[in-house]
């Protein structure tokens, strides 16, 4: 850890009302792909997490501006429905200081029985998140402008911004950008069925789900990295929850989700919206390899694994018909 990082951590602790001389350790955390993430260990054993964004001049996608504003919004909202997540300690122009959650990222060491129990628990937690409503639709960061009064306006703005990024960075896509845009537009009418802006994490892949074993039995210790959150259609969360797969195959999650009051009806309109959200996430995963200047192996993996998922999502948009009824 550099002296600059240590001094920055002490300065931020002091601004948050915490004695800087209680800082015992400051170390980088793995897993972050955009912000700098550090663990701050205090002399009393308390752990905090500090996030600092890249310089404003660093290349990035349009929706990535002011990500920490959205992340803080997610944690404050999660606290209102008692979902385990970091709690905001302090925010500043260029940082977010939060509590650390117990546990390790969800990994392959869990038994099938443990997986079943955890997926059901996760379903219940996500259903609670989806009870939280917002003041409008879109990214609370304001990266793409103010919140919109309707979901169609918000999501089409989000989608257009990603396609603009593809053009700006000349990103490789398995289909031409204009063709992707035409395909997506054919399904935009389905967005009009969403009338209430709800909390959407949009990045709930296993790496952002911490599993703890407080008494030997695994439980979810926290949902982290809420920087991609937006106010929108809760169905959108099912994309990362079944990353590169199909949420309808995850019966354990869906059982827990429905038991906790979540609505998961996969009619034609819902499947078309889900296809839109799948294409949105997979576009981001392909395009962001350019501004992040990832290595050749990562680029090859993304093109081999993610590109077919994007094509499948675009094909599904057309497969479910040109228009839907407004139920």
TrEMBL record:
Gene3D superfamilies: 3.90.1200.10. Residues 26-271 form the Aminoglycoside phosphotransferase domain. InterPro entries: AGP_Transferase, Aminoglycoside_PTrfase, Hygromycin-B_Kinase, Kinase-like_dom_sf. It holds the Pfam family APH. It comes from the Bacteria. This is Aminoglycoside phosphotransferase family protein. It comes from Streptomyces mirabilis.
């Amino acid at each position: 850890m550099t002296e600059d990082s240590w001094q920055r951590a002490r300065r931020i602790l002091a601004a948050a009302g915490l004695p800087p001389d209680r800082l015992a350790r400051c170390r980088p955390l793995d897993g972050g792909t955009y912000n700098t993430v550090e663990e701050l260990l205090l002399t009393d054993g308390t752990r905090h997490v500090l996030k600092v964004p890249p310089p404003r001049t660093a290349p990035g996608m349009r929706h990535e501006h002011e990500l920490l504003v959205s992340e803080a919004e997610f944690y404050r909202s999660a606290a209102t429905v008692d979902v385990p997540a970091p709690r905001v300690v302090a925010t500043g122009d260029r940082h977010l200081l939060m509590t650390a959650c117990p546990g390790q990222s969800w990994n392959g060491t869990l038994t099938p029985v443990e997986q079943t129990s955890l997926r059901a628990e996760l379903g219940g937690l996500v259903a609670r998140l989806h009870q939280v409503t917002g003041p409008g639709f879109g990214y609370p960061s304001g990266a793409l402008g103010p919140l919109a009064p309707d979901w169609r306006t918000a999501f089409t703005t989000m989608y257009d911004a990603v396609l603009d990024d593809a053009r700006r960075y000349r990103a490789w896509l398995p289909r031409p950008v204009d063709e992707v845009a035409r395909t997506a537009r054919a399904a935009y009418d389905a967005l009009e069925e969403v009338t209430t802006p709800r909390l959407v994490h949009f990045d709930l892949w296993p790496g952002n789900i911490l599993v703890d074993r407080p008494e030997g039995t695994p439980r979810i210790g926290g949902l982290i990295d809420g920087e991609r959150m937006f106010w929108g259609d809760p169905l959108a969360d099912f994309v990362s929850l079944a990353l590169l797969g199909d949420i309808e195959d995850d019966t354990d999650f869906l059982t827990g989700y429905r038991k906790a009051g979540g609505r998961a009806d996969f009619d034609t309109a819902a499947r078309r919206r889900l296809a839109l959200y799948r294409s949105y996430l997979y576009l981001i995963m392909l395009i962001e390899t350019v501004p992040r200047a990832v290595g050749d192996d990562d680029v090859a993996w993304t093109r081999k694994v993610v590109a077919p998922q994007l094509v499948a999502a675009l094909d599904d948009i057309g497969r479910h018909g040109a228009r839907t009824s407004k139920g």
